Amino acid sequence: MRLLQHLFDNNRRWVKTIEKENPGFFQRLSRGQSPEYLWIGCSDSRIPANEVVGLLPGELFVHRNVANLVIHSDMNLLSVLQYAVEVLKVKHVIVCGHYGCGGVLAAMQCGSHGLIDNWLRFIKDTYHHNLQLLEDEPEERRADRLCELNVIQQVANVCHTSIVQNAWRRNQTLAVHGWIYDIKDGLLKDLDVCISAPEQIPNIYQLEARID
User: Where in the sequence numbering do the catalytic residues fall?
Assistant: First the structure.
């Protein structure tokens, strides 16, 4: 007997529900995917990416990690981004954080949390670079503001990659968005950061075309 039989039972009920609402759905899905969106979100189990935006399987390409970070040495993230942009030709990259993010809260502390300290260091950098802005916030609002600033920084990091800039150079339609999710009410908030051209990022991060 399977220890997780209830999950297999849930799976079968889910398949029946989908097929009842949309006959032949899985057969069509098996022929390939053509999502318009890449979602870069947090690993937090309370945020089901497809359901949050009301999309079906096949409509949202997803990458998740602790605190939705975009780190330029993360080959996992870069591989997902390259595949989404160059093969799937997504039109939108959505970086979505959430209020109450455990990674952000841990990064605001000085205590050691083990191996993950090396990952959270990037959030500490964002905290340090925005120290005055954060200290001007009421204490009860500070963590939420850092969650927002973290998203904004990750949007910039996406745009600084050669993957995204090469797409723009090819005149490929591609916009990078920064959103945040509130677990308390289930609603998304647009952080009013949307970058769709290299001219929108600082000159120092704009990559010139290679001359081979």
Answer: 42, 44, 46, 98, 101
Tokens 């090819």 belong to residue:
170
Report the alpha-carbon distance of residue 10 to residue 12 in Å, rounded. Answer: 5
User: How many whole angstroms from its chain centre is CA 76?
Assistant: 13
Task: State the alpha helices, DSSP H only, in 2-138.
Answer: 5-21, 25-29, 49-52, 75-82, 102-107, 117-129, 131-135
48 has a pLDDT exceeding 60: yes
91, 37 Cβ separation under 8 angstroms: yes
- Give the pLDDT score at 208: 83
Instruction: Quote the Cα angle for 27-32-34, to 5°.
Output: 125
Amino acid occupying residue 40: I
Tokens coding 76 = 């996992």
pTM of the model: 0.94
Which contiguous run of DSSP H or E holds residue 57? Answer: none
**Residue type at position 140:** E
Angle at the Cα of 206 from the Cα atoms of 94 and 95, rounded to 5 degrees: 10
